[in-house]
Design a protein that fits this description.
- The complex is a heterotrimer.
- Chain A is mostly helical.
- Chain A has a single domain, classed as MetI-like fold (Orthogonal Bundle), CATH 1.10.3720.
- Chain A has 11 helices and no strands.
- Chain A is globular and about 65 Å long.
- The termini of chain A are far apart.
- In chain B, the strands form 2 sheets. Chain B has a 5-stranded mixed beta sheet with strand order 2-1-3-10-4, with helices on both faces. Chain B has a 5-stranded mixed beta sheet with strand order 7-6-8-5-9, with helices on both faces.
- In chain B, helix 2 links the parallel strand 1 and strand 2.
- In chain B, helix 2 runs antiparallel to helix 11.
- In chain C, strand 15 and strand 16 form a beta hairpin.
- Chain C has a 6-stranded mixed beta sheet, with helices on both faces. A 5-stranded antiparallel beta sheet of chain C has the order 11-10-9-12-18. In chain C, strands 13-17-14-15-16 form a 5-stranded antiparallel beta sheet.
- Classes of the chains: A mainly alpha, B alpha/beta, C alpha+beta.
- Chains in contact: A-B, A-C.
- Chains A and C meet through helix 6 and helix 7 of A and strand 4 of C.
Chain lengths: 221, 245, 337
């Protein structure tokens, strides 16, 4: 097994998941922060569920849902001819569910911390809700975005249980670094496990450090 | 797995050995159901209480190496018991094969399991690096010259139980499982099974050893004797294993 | 005229307003807290859901809103803040330079909101609202968040707004002094209903308005400074003269004088030896009992009015009656702009 391959795969998975979660998580976080609908607590509980569910349980149900018999998996096979399980795309979907609250909650908190008057002022100055969102709410919630991105990335990088259930451990496709390290340990190849773990730690630290430095530079502009 | 941890916790906290403490046996997961049945029979016959903890062979091995206070280890392979013997953690000469695993091809929907090897999108087998059944599956595929064709379509599971999960959920068209799994009352109904000829793969010998951590326990020796008795052999083969040697 | 028609229920509180205000100058909305002043403003701006006469969203209404707290966008410079509305203006575009000049924020353009004082920030907020080229400017107690000193610094800018702005302004306040200084038209709001609406000078000289009693009672007169003596200025208010402390430029345009009812007392005969400089001939027009102890008397001085707050006891002792000729003693005059 290559040393860098699984780490590269994990990095890609973490990055893609982070991007997808920012894209779908932001509107969700915005709606949650602005709405007074009576469904809000329900939505919040649903979003928070992945924190509570054991990853293997989540993975197990995804195995069924994304498998060729499942509602989502079946549609995917019709569309593309291949399965969602045992594929990188399937892992992205699984990771997005697994890391959803870690991306949504910091962003939602940031939005909620915006004084209502700030948005109202923007509206009275002629900004539509969408305009106000992009020109005022987003720039002022920068901290929340960074936090959400960092957490989504880091959480996915360390993902294990879910991948174990739906990944199929396929080299270059779903054999992420956490699985690879686990395999090394299981097959008693401790030296390889140490090497890979060190590499993972070094990489994760570098990325997180980079994000926090960037955060600081931006805030003190 | 969790029972192992709880056991360890209790063991470390309990301190000195209490008079009526049970015989502690570490059992490989795939043998656990069978062992439950054996333990009941053993206790009936001898009155000795047995406490078993299950887990993957690798994990149990790692725990034993790090001082977990088991008396007996029933592994799913021969490698780990051999290593324990070599490193002095197991009583020399105590190692023996208590059961032989049987590799089986299984499919949920396909009519012909062997054909399914070539026709399925995904073929599931346990990770050859970490699971003896996986290694055996790969041996067979290489031996039968199927590996070239199949290897690009392999989904690796952690163990045979997950192989069955992959195959039973339809994600893998066919999978290499342990026959013992199919004898469980919860086993799913498949459309075909095919016994992989044992000569095509490395033997799936499941070996047991006496552990030296608590000194030689009389009761462990009686367990070993029991495992080779007719009663035990009959239970073992009813569960889908070949006999002990 | 601008029609204000708004009806809104919010929990226990009901706002029901239907009145007209001039489409020029500053209209004050006066009331105590809880009377619905802010709610009314928000309804006009489109910030309250429901109860609005039209159903346009806030950003489509052409109103500028100045909040109590400046609330500038911290991620933009001052220039960015005032450009924000300008860039989104749909109708005619107000020229930036005169507004920046009028509010004296030219030096602040490249600063960040965090580095501004309260008064500076509020001026920027006003500029931003004005540069949105609105048809109506709404101000919700814009001076309330400032301390006395800053408020005094800022008031002259508001005076300029009054003089130089062509857009009508609605100015909400619970401070009768500010209202008296700045507004031309006055709407009194009490528990969500309009208690009075009319020309400022006229409304403040009414005796029977419960809201305008005690500290809040007092008239406003237009007067021109005529000459100086001993550090005082003599003002001609058309129906007589009044002295006030300070040396104001003579011959300039008329100024507002506010005379609080508490500073006016009534005598039957002209006092000879008194420290009070201003003694004016007056006619008792109306006497209104405010409560057990106090009454408010409207005195006619020529064509204008003064209010005097006196005790009921004094009214009966002096046997004051409507139509009688008396003298009004004015102890202190506050000169407003």
């Amino acid at each position: 097994m290559s040393l860098y391959g699984p780490l590269w795969l994990s990095a890609q998975l973490a990055f893609v998941t982070m991007v997808v979660l920012i894209l779908i998580g932001t509107p969700l976080a915005w709606w949650l922060s602005q709405t007074s609908s009576r469904w809000k607590p329900v939505a919040q509980a649903v979003v928070a569920m992945p924190i509570v569910l054991p990853p293997t349980v989540l993975g197990f149900y995804l195995l069924i849902l994304l498998g060729p018999d499942g509602t989502v998996g079946r549609w995917w096979v019709e569309l593309t001819g291949s399965t969602l399980t045992f594929s990188f795309t399937g892992l992205v979907i699984a990771s997005c569910i697994y890391s959803l609250p870690f991306a949504v909650q910091p962003i939602q908190n940031s939005f909620e911390a915006l004084p209502r008057q700030t948005l109202e002022r923007a509206w009275t100055l002629g900004a539509s809700r969408l305009d106000a969102f992009f020109s005022v709410a987003v720039p002022l919630s920068f901290r929340g975005f960074v936090s959400g991105m960092v957490l989504a990335f880091a959480h996915t990088l360390g993902e294990f249980g879910v991948v174990l259930m739906v990944g199929g451990n396929i080299p270059g496709e779903t054999r992420v670094v956490s699985i690879a390290i686990y395999d090394h340990v299981e097959s008693l190849n401790y030296a390889a496990a140490h090497r890979m773990s060190l590499l993972l730690l070094g990489f994760a630290f570098a990325v997180l450090l980079g994000m926090y430095i960037f955060n600081r530079k931006w805030s003190t502009r | 797995m969790h029972r192992t941890l709880v056991l360890l916790l209790i063991a470390f906290l309990a301190g000195p050995v209490v008079a009526e403490d049970p015989l502690r046996v570490a059992v490989a997961s795939n043998f656990s159901r069978t062992f439950e049945q054996l333990a009941v029979r053993f206790s009936e016959e001898t009155g000795i209480v047995v406490d078993s903890a299950t887990g993957s062979t690798g994990k149990l091995y790692a725990q034993i190496v790090n001082g977990a206070p088991f008396d007996v280890f029933l592994a799913a392979d021969a490698d780990r018991p051999a290593l324990l013997e070599a490193s002095g953690k197991a009583v020399p000469g105590s190692r023996f094969t208590y059961a032989t695993g049987r590799l089986v091809l299984w499919s949920r929907d396909a009519d012909d399991c062997v054909e399914a090897l070539h026709a399925s999108k995904w073929v599931a087998l346990a990770n050859p690096d970490t699971a003896p059944y996986g290694r055996a599956a790969r041996d067979f595929l290489q031996h039968a010259n199927h590996w070239q064709d199949v290897s690009g379509r392999v989904a690796y599971a952690e163990n045979v139980m997950q192989v069955l999960q992959f195959a039973a959920s339809g994600n893998a068209g066919v999978g290499f499982v342990a026959e013992s799994l199919l004898n469980s009352p919860y086993a799913p109904t498949g459309s075909c099974t095919w016994h992989v000829p044992p000569e095509t793969h490395s033997p799936l010998e499941q070996q047991a050893v006496l552990l030296t951590s608590n000194g030689e326990d009389e009761r462990a020796i009686r367990l070993f004797e029991f495992l080779q008795s007719d009663a035990a052999i009959s239970i073992i083969s009813k569960n889908g294993y070949g006999e002990s040697r | 005229m601008i029609r204000l028609r708004h009806k809104l229920s919010k929990g226990d509180f009901v706002l029901d307003v239907d009145t007209e205000i001039p489409d020029a100058g500053i209209t004050g909305i006066f009331g105590e807290s809880g009377s619905g002043k802010t709610t009314l403003l928000r309804c006009i701006a489109g910030l309250e859901r429901g109860g609005n006469s039209e159903d346009l969203p806030a950003h489509k209404r052409n109103v500028g809103y100045v909040f109590q707290e400046p609330g500038l966008f911290p991620h933009l410079t001052v220039r960015g803040n005032i450009d924000y509305g300008a860039r989104r203006a749909t109708t005619r575009r107000v020229d930036g330079a005169p507004v920046i000049d009028m509010l004296g924020i030219g030096d602040l353009l490249d600063r960040r909101p965090a580095s501004l004082s309260g008064g500076e920030a509020q001026r920027v907020a006003i500029a931003a609202a004005l540069l949105r080229s609105p048809d109506l400017v709404l101000m919700d107690e814009p001076l309330a968040s400032l301390d006395r000193k800053r408020r005094d610094e800022l008031l002259p800018y508001f005076d300029r707004l009054h003089d130089e702005l062509s857009v009508p302004v609605i100015y909400v306040s619970h401070d009768i002094d500010e209202i008296s200084r700045l507004c031309d038209h006055l709407v009194l709001l009490d528990k969500g209903l309009v208690a009075a609406s009319g020309d400022l000078f006229d409304v403040v000289s009414r005796v029977n308005v419960p809201m305008l009693s005690g500290r809040n009672a007092g008239v406003v007169l237009w007067a021109t400074p005529v000459d100086h003596e001993d550090g005082l200025t003599r003002f001609d208010f058309g129906d007589g003269d009044i002295w006030a402390p300070g040396e104001f430029e003579t011959g300039r345009s008329p100024m507002r004088l506010r005379i609080s009812a508490r500073d006016v007392s009534i005598v039957r005969e002209r006092p000879q030896q008194t420290t009070i400089l201003n003694v004016l001939r007056a006619v008792v027009e109306e006497i209104h009992t405010v409560d057990r102890a106090v009454a408010l008397v409207r005195l006619g001085v020529g064509n204008q009015s003064l209010l005097a707050q006196v005790t009921n006891r004094s009214v009966s002792r002096l046997e004051l009656q409507s139509g009688e000729r008396v003298f009004a003693q004015v102890k202190s005059v506050t000169v407003r702009h």
